[in-house]
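Hello again, I could really use a second opinion on something today. Take your time with it, there's no hurry, and the full record follows here:

___
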Amino acid sequence: MKLAQQHGLSIPYQLGEELGYGADGQVFKSLNDPSKVIKVCGLFQLPNHDLDQEYLQRSNVLDYLIQTPTTIHACVYEHVKLGEWSRDFDNHPQRYILYYCVMERLKELSEDEKKVFHSILSHEDRGIIKNFPLNKLRRILQGLGLGLEFSEEKVMVFLDKLKSSKVRHLDLHQRNVMVDNHGNYKLIDFDRCVLKD
């Protein structure tokens, strides 16, 4: 957001308090609509990476989620490229792109739900791949259910749909799972997603 302000950029939404941040951006409450959040994102050129291709990949995922909403992804309503610039970084010019997206506002998992998803989800950016067959997942969840409070059935529905989703999340972990008002689990943070062939 600081970079956007430095460039005199305005976003056509009133931003409320910051709800969270990560390597790719900041998430704010929307004062225009409390059921939505605004994520302001920065994508920076890295050595041996094509910035334009990476932005196109992100844009394609967001377009797909707008046109083909799913029950396991936060609803995406729009995304807009604010522009691209260059800065001096480590004595070299570095290109970057700023954009924002408007998404459904979700709720954090309970402490018990966080433990469940930490136990069963891959953490792909750390190289931890957990690819349990569904019958083993069911047994794991039944065991976790002895001490933790969560909806086993809703977790199983989420995982089943995750396996068949056209969107592959490359940063799967419990921090990128939230819950909607109906208790359904949904993924967030689409900056590290790709569309499967």
Observations:
- The first strand starts at residue 15 and ends at 21.
- The CA atoms of residues 72 and 186 lie 4 Å apart.
- Strands lie at 15-21, 25-30, 36-44, 76-89, 92-104, 167-169, 177-179, 185-187, 193-195.
- Helices lie at 2-6, 51-67, 111-120, 134-144, 152-164.
